[in-house]
Fold this protein.
Amino acid sequence: MSSFNDRTPSPPWHAAGDQSSAHSSALRPATPYQPAAPTIPPRVRGWRRALRSASGGLITFGGNTSAEAVRELVNRVRQPVREDFRVAVLSLKGGVGKTTVTIGLGSALASLRQDRVIAVDANPDLGTLARRVPSQTTSTVRTLLQDENVNWYTDIRRHTSQALSGLEVLASESDPAISEAFNEDEYLQVVETLGSHYPLILTDCGTGLVHSAMTGVLKSVSNLVLVTSPAIDGAQSAVATLDWLQAHGMGKLAADSIVVIASTKTKNPPVDVAMLTNYFQSRVRAVQVIPYDEHLAVGGLIDLDQLNRKTRSAFLELAAAVVDRFAVPTQPMAWPQPQPQQAQPQQAPAPNPPPQHSDPQHVGPQHAQPQPQWPAQQPAYPGHLQTPYERWPIPPVQSEPTYPHTGMHPDSPMGPGLPYGPR
C-alpha cells in the first residue's frame, strides 16, 4: 500500500511477508486451554479493596501489581482537564472490536473520574452499542432530536441507558433505512445538546470516512482512537485511515491519535503484535494492546467483574493515555530565590576633609555647619507660645469658672423654687 507521505514508514508486513508463524510467543498458551474449576476469590483488603469498590470493579489487580503503579494510573485518569473533550472511536474495517473498546474506555473513565460520560452511537448502519449495556429505554438519537423539552440533565437522561460503571449510552436507530438519514447537521446538534451536561463524550463511529455523519464527527472531536485487529487486513485498514487523514489536512489529528490493537476475536493472533506496536508508535501518540478475553469475545453485555486482570489493566492504561491529552500541565512551585547583593561603589574621600569635632564650639567659622532657620510665625492669638516645632496653633486652655455648688451650671436653677440665672 502506498502512503500519502513519502516519509511515512512502510508497514512491516510488506517486507516480512506471511507472518502467520512469527507472532509473539508470550501470547500463545503453553498448553491447550482448559476451563479451570470454580474457586473462591481471595479476600481483598486494604487499598485494593477500596480501589475496587471505588472503581466499580474495574481495578482488581493481582498480588504482583504494586500500590505505586496502580496509584499512578488512577491519578492519571483522575487528573484535572483543561476543557471538555470529545473522543471518536473509529475503524474502517468492521468486526475489530470498535464497540467493545468504546464501552471499555467509557467504563474506565466513568468509574474512576466520577464525571458524566456518555457514548453516542453514530453508526449510520445498524449500531450495536446499546446492546452492550443494560437497556433502560427505547429512545435513540432520533428521539432526542425530536424532543423539544430538553433543558436539564434529567431531560436527556430519559433517552439514555446507564451501565453499572456510570457510563451512559445513546443508541442509534435500529432501522438502517432511517439511520441513514443521520447526517452531519443532526450529529452536531446532538453533540451540542449533550455538551451542556456531559464533559466527556465518546462517539462510536461507523466503518466509513466519507458519509455525512462522519464529516461532523471529524469536525467536532478533539482526539481519535483508531481500533485495529492483530491481523494484516485490520492493520492495513488502520494505515489507510491515517493516510486518509493526512491527505485531507488532518495530519495533526492523526499524529495525536491512539491506536488500539484489540484481540477480541482470537486468542492466537496471526501476526506479531510487537511488530505492529513498533510500527504504529512511529506514527501516532500512543499504542495500547487489549488482550484476548472470553467475556469480550461473547459480544453480549460487558460486566467489568467478568474481565480478567490483564484486560482491566489494559483499559485503565488506555483511559490514562486519553486523559493525558487533555490534562492541565502542572508546574512545580517556584520558591523565591535570594537575590545576590550587589556591592555598593565606594566614594572617593575628599582631598582635604574638614576636621571632625564633637563640640560645635570648637568648629571654626569656615567649617561651621549651617543651622536650620525656621520661618518667623506671627502669634495666632495673645498668649500663644511660638516655638519652631509647632506647625498648627494650639489654643491655650481656659479654666472653667467655679460655681457655688458642685455640678451647677450657669443655666441651672439656683435652688428649689428659685428662678434661673446666676446667684
Summary: Confidence is low (pLDDT under 50) at residues 16-31, 33-48.
